[in-house]
Amino acid sequence: MPFVRANERSMPPDTIINDIKQRTAEGYQEVVLTGTKVGAYNSSGMDLKGLLERILDETTIPRIRLSSVQPQEISQRLIKLWKDKRLCPHFHLSLQSGSASVLARMNRRYRPVDYQKVIKLIRSEVPLVAITTDVIVGFPGETDKELRKVWSSASGLVLPASTSSHTRYALARQQQKWGTQSRTKQKRSVPKKCWR
């Protein structure tokens, strides 16, 4: 995806804050800051930490949640904001692959070791945090060795996936059986022994 995305644009903070105030007046209890690269937010020099500080200071919305962020977008100074209970103790932290070589081919700007460091940082500052992620298996050209790295990295992080019907995890497994377009274009499929 990073190869086809356009350059990021950040909405001005005043626009965001006014929108949150409007939603609060309408009775909303939670807002989600979302975008393709939320952690890279930058509007006239204001980064994500600055935006969150303004939202916390200038609005009364009870809950604020971030959508997906990448490991290189997380810093200790950002995580310290989670002392405010209005920030939901949930991070969707994009892993994609536990293999450094696959991540490089995906044009990701982090390595599995970076991901693990960020997980430790988040858990040290937000002890009851919920961390979710995405993992892609069967990336075109992925070798058996790379797949094993994906599996060992994801398993070692204790990021549970639900196999309940109609969850994204269960549906993704079902798509492997149905023969989706992405599956048919791969040179190899994910071995059944890797399914749980």
Features:
single chain, 196 residues, mainly alpha, pyruvate-formate lyase- activating enzyme, two-stranded parallel ribbon, two-stranded antiparallel sheet, 8 helices, 39% helix
Report on this model:
The strands form 3 sheets. Strands 1-4 form a two-stranded parallel sheet. A two-stranded antiparallel ribbon has the order 2-3. A two-stranded parallel ribbon has the order 5-6. The protein has 8 helices and 6 strands, in the order αβββαβαβααβααα. It has a single domain, classed as tm_1862 like domain (pyruvate-formate lyase- activating enzyme, Alpha-Beta Horseshoe). It has helices at 13-25, 48-58, 76-79, 100-105, 112-125, 144-156, 168-178, 181-185; strands spanning 30-33, 42-43, 46-47, 63-66, 90-92, 130-132. With 196 residues, it is mainly alpha-helical. α1 (13-25) runs parallel beside α2.
Largest sheet: 2 strands, parallel
- Approximate helicity band: 25-40%
What integer is the average pLDDT? Answer: 82
How much of the sequence lies in strands comes to 5-15%
Strand order of the largest sheet: 1-4
- What shape does the CA trace take? elongated
CATH fold title: pyruvate-formate lyase- activating enzyme
User: CATH class, anyone?
Assistant: Alpha Beta
Count of domain modules: 1
Give the tally of β-strands.
6
SS-derived structural category: mainly alpha
How far apart are the termini? 27 Å
Radius of gyration, whole Å: 19 Å
